[in-house]
């Protein structure tokens, strides 16, 4: 790249910038990359670019001394490589601005965060980076490991209008995107409307689905829509392995959905796999399924949350499989996404890509179908309930002021992990996994790869908390000991029972 300081630049039109105490987060809705602009001074330069004839003028305006220009030039180059800023086709500035930001050397990086930045994340952000919103507990499947014990719709589910109000609030908070899940979110008759509504408000949507409603027509519609990403769940690279966990016919449904997306030209869909004892030997096969369809493989960790608690003993990967998974992930690098869910494997030595941080209540949270807010999607329990967004103050107040989130953002003790050589990267592992196996929250992860949880797991009198709520209906597949629950009311028989098809918006 030639001297970029001579050129006229601007923020890319697909990028949103969100101020944070450390500087800003920049999110690109096209390539879905997140960049951390680690100093307020660099934010001032970036926001001044569009109003100045060239980048040098933006630096001068921001009061950056010439000896600091190389550092700023390098930071801007990083942002340009991620398409966060781009050259202006016309050298004419948008307007003339007399704002006078101060400046210091800074660096923007894409997708990674330094130790200092991670520390800032521990104290929480102005809004979540990764917000999961479960639109419904209704589901056409009954996967044995469902983290939210889904099946039946909750009659108190948020209405269309309430969902729109949530989206409006997320837009006001500059939440770049929401991960929408369930249950099976596409079962809601207003799902496609809510998706379009979010896109129209510039709130990106990543939604997880078992594929049941991803027809060729829907796939074409999605392929033509910016701001939308799709994750299709599959837990076996063969029908035999998948359907034992997710139910008969679910493999065919997911593969059909992936094929429909590929045929429609949807770029870079995600193939989402929960790694279990049964599929841990199929990682290469999963990768091939994704590659053949232009999709990206995303692996996540099995947690003992929801119905997952009943099957965790039987399904969580063996110690040998964990080691193989770790080596496989190291070899794959950033070609395979993990949602940062395997950072406990850093106990083997080298860290995997990601924040390596339990983000619960700090950068992550969950909104459930009735508007309850929890610290994380895997922590649906009264212990991690932060509030309800229908209360005065809405979601913003819950996120910023709830007692639970304040507690989670305060310095944590390392308990029995104190002295472990890997604590800085492993950090004692996953809070939810510890809680739902009855282990102390300040101790080792139940899958501690150094074996430090073995005694605690074997201890007599360990109490395993039950989920605070359960929307399961009759389970056609069963691996763990859970007996099939009898239906308790109409919506136990059908996930759609009680759903008003014509909503307040007439959809
Ligand atoms: S509790 Fe576990 S799953 Fe939730 S954010 Fe923390 S590490 Fe991730
Ligand atoms: S002892 Fe704690 S910090 Fe060390 S590897 Fe085990 S879980 Fe991680």
Automatic annotation (TrEMBL):
<keyword id="KW-0004">4Fe-4S</keyword>
<dbReference type="InterPro" id="IPR007197">
    <property type="entry name" value="rSAM"/>
</dbReference>
<dbReference type="Pfam" id="PF04055">
    <property type="entry name" value="Radical_SAM"/>
</dbReference>
<dbReference type="InterPro" id="IPR023850">
    <property type="entry name" value="MftB"/>
</dbReference>
<protein>
    <recommendedName>
        <fullName>Mycofactocin maturase MftC</fullName>
        <ecNumber>1.3.98.7</ecNumber>
        <ecNumber>4.1.99.26</ecNumber>
    </recommendedName>
</protein>
<feature type="domain" description="Radical SAM core">
    <location>
        <begin position="125"/>
        <end position="335"/>
    </location>
</feature>
<dbReference type="InterPro" id="IPR023913">
    <property type="entry name" value="MftC"/>
</dbReference>
<dbReference type="InterPro" id="IPR058240">
    <property type="entry name" value="rSAM_sf"/>
</dbReference>
<keyword id="KW-0408">Iron</keyword>
<dbReference type="InterPro" id="IPR050377">
    <property type="entry name" value="Radical_SAM_PqqE_MftC-like"/>
</dbReference>
<dbReference type="InterPro" id="IPR006638">
    <property type="entry name" value="Elp3/MiaA/NifB-like_rSAM"/>
</dbReference>
<dbReference type="GO" id="GO:0003824">
    <property type="term" value="F:catalytic activity"/>
</dbReference>
<dbReference type="GO" id="GO:0046872">
    <property type="term" value="F:metal ion binding"/>
</dbReference>
<dbReference type="InterPro" id="IPR023885">
    <property type="entry name" value="4Fe4S-binding_SPASM_dom"/>
</dbReference>
<dbReference type="InterPro" id="IPR034480">
    <property type="entry name" value="Heme_synthase-like"/>
</dbReference>
<keyword id="KW-0411">Iron-sulfur</keyword>
<keyword id="KW-0456">Lyase</keyword>
<keyword id="KW-0949">S-adenosyl-L-methionine</keyword>
<feature type="region of interest" description="Disordered">
    <location>
        <begin position="89"/>
        <end position="111"/>
    </location>
</feature>
<feature type="region of interest" description="Disordered">
    <location>
        <begin position="461"/>
        <end position="483"/>
    </location>
</feature>
<feature type="compositionally biased region" description="Polar residues">
    <location>
        <begin position="90"/>
        <end position="102"/>
    </location>
</feature>
<dbReference type="Pfam" id="PF26520">
    <property type="entry name" value="MftB_chaperone"/>
</dbReference>
<keyword id="KW-0479">Metal-binding</keyword>
<dbReference type="InterPro" id="IPR013785">
    <property type="entry name" value="Aldolase_TIM"/>
</dbReference>
<dbReference type="Pfam" id="PF13186">
    <property type="entry name" value="SPASM"/>
</dbReference>
<dbReference type="GO" id="GO:0051539">
    <property type="term" value="F:4 iron, 4 sulfur cluster binding"/>
</dbReference>
